[in-house]
Specification:
Blueprint: H1 13-35, H2 42-45, H3 50-63, H4 66-88, H5 95-115, H6 121-131, H7 139-167, H8 172-193, H9 196-217, H10 220-237, H11 247-272, H12 282-310, H13 313-319, H14 323-327, H15 329-344, H16 357-378, H17 386-396
């Protein structure tokens, strides 16, 4: 069996729809950081209008972490498919899969340093190499690993809280709050006024270091791997390959996931305010517990709900508008960065720090609507998104036609 990209007729269209939905949700969540409003210290956010507070809460409750989790789940599903195809070819070392991850890592690191440090591609690639180690695990083992990986951030936060109580004096809190304000002031100046070179060599460099440190401190890596494993499990049991046969399982997943998600996200968004508040607090611990189970629960609930709606013709026509965005997920993810840094950074329009939650979220919706239209138009003429095409060429080391070949007319 020759290694080659999946043909259009082999694609599971529902997965493209889910990827498209995830890309839209990711943009709304990322707008907190693109625009800067998510970095504002509490001493400044208190003065924001009520509608910004409400929108910020809604973004945390319904968006934050959920759509990254959906995308992680779909990565796990896709990786499982690629590993299965590799084994069919007799590629026991899944070398093609690893090459694909290598180039994704390179793309992600370039994205993080040159454009925006909030990159997730490098994290997916790194965790993808870990995922390879699970390819021989049983289905039951995948579920157990996923559960305990979700528990790890809770244990870690408890440890941090204990260390903080034991070794950090109470008066250090005042210094921490002053440091937050200084960080915001410096970030506002650098991001809104800096040239491309200034931002790459100063703001982005510090942001990248802080970003990857934050990924470790917040235990984002175990969370990502847990969703990968759930996606791998879903592929193995054939949930999306046969929706009709799995109708009851999907219905139960939707109900349980949404209930767990609503409960967990009350703790995360209302009590803690974000994923893992620092310095550690009891409310922060409640938020971490809520995030650990509420976010993946909500993500699975959304996936299952979309799968249920997809089986109804009216909903399928509506949901199908997201499929082109999902087919070009890598291109659209990177395009979101290009558009947003142009709006908010100094080498563009320099609007960093001037958007509240409402304006930032509205801008995200406008950008995503444009991506739906552009992706639909692009795929009328081309077989892949531009970045998907480059990624595949690097992976398969062969020429791949980009344009769709028109069939000769019948005489």
């Amino acid at each position: 069996m020759q290694a080659a990209p999946i043909e259009a007729h082999e694609r599971i269209l529902l997965l493209d729809v889910l990827r498209g939905v995830a890309i839209g949700g990711i943009l709304i969540g990322n707008m907190q950081w693109f625009s800067g409003y998510g970095m504002m210290p509490p001493s400044l956010t208190e003065a924001l209008p009520v509608y910004d507070h409400v929108t910020r809460f809604l973004v945390h409750f319904f968006i934050e972490g959920k759509f990254y989790s959906i995308f992680s789940f779909l990565f796990g599903f896709g990786f499982a498919l690629q590993i299965a195809r590799a084994e069919e070819r007799g590629d026991a070392k899944v070398s093609l899969f690893k090459r694909r991850l290598f180039w994704l890592l390179i793309i992600g690191l370039l994205h993080a340093y040159l454009l925006w440090a909030g990159d997730i591609l490098s994290v997916y690639a790194a965790m993808g190499f870990v995922l390879v180690l699970f390819r021989k695990k049983s289905n039951e083992s995948l579920l157990k690993w996923a559960f305990w990986l979700m528990v790890v951030p809770v244990i870690w936060y408890i440890v941090m809280y204990g260390l903080f109580l034991a070794f950090v004096p109470a008066e250090a809190l005042a210094g921490f709050e002053a440091g937050q304000l200084k960080f915001w002031t410096d970030s506002l100046r650098k991001a809104s006024q800096g040239s491309f070179i200034d931002i790459v060599t100063d703001f982005n460099l510090q942001y990248v270091i802080g970003r990857y440190a934050g990924l470790v401190l917040q235990m984002r890596l175990p969370k990502t791997l847990a969703m990968f494993l759930l996606g791998m499990y879903a592929y193995r049991v054939g949930i999306f390959q046969d929706l009709e046969r799995n109708r009851e399982l999907i219905r139960r997943a939707a109900l349980a996931g949404l209930i767990l998600g609503l409960i967990g996200n009350v703790a995360m968004a209302w009590m803690a305010g974000n994923e893992a508040s620092f310095p550690p607090t009891p409310a922060g611990l409640a938020g971490v517990v809520g995030y650990a189970f509420g976010v993946p629960g909500f993500a699975i609930g959304i996936i299952a709900t979309v799968a249920i709606l997809w089986q109804r013709s009216g909903w399928r026509r509506l949901l199908n508008i997201f499929a082109p965005v999902g087919r070009m997920a890598l291109t659209n993810y990177l395009l979101q960065t290009v558009v947003c840094v142009t709006i908010f950074y100094g080498y563009g329009f320099g609007r960093f720090g001037s958007f509240g939650a409402v304006r930032a979220s509205a801008a995200a919706l406008v950008i995503f609507a444009a991506q739906i239209a552009l992706s639909t138009l692009w795929l009328k003429f081309f077989a892949f998104g531009p970045m998907e095409w480059i990624w595949r060429r690097l992976t398969y080391r062969t020429r791949l036609p980009l344009r769709i070949r028109s069939e000769p007319a019948m005489s």
